[in-house]
Design goal:
single chain; alpha/beta; eight-stranded mixed sheet; two-stranded antiparallel ribbon
Amino acid sequence: MTQRLSRVGRALALGLAAFTLVGAAAASDDQRLRAAFVLRFAQYTQWSELPAGGQLQLCAAGLDGGDDEMRRLAGRNVGARVLQVSIIELPREAQACQVLVLGHDEPAQLRRWLRELGDAPVLVVGTRPEAWRAGVAIALLTEPQGLAFSINLSEARRRGLGLSAQMLKLAREVR
């Protein structure tokens, strides 16, 4: 499985991830790794404002089979908060999220989700190349060497999010 990871992905998975990924089918491993990356992205993000309470809401939409792995993140700690996970279908539902993972590949659909969020302090992670072009804060993409991620730092800052220097160093691209 580590052969499937890029150098950047391996550094993040090994350096930041603290859980073991045991082999199953390659597609399942990719979904598990994607979920592990999303968890670490949340753990290395600071929000300018968070709702009261001890929860952080992760929402996922359009993942085509990755929902189960995202659901398994529920109950994990993100700082002093406990991660709650919802699978959503409508852009308006994303208003209650602090992390939004989008698996959509239609540019117009991605732009609709982002437009619905406005300037809300939501860490938007896209899993398709179209998401990067649409303006997500983090694009987590499958490449020939494995998983890699790029960061749109200006988008993250526009949303009032701070991303750790460690995460920025490991990104394939920062703009």
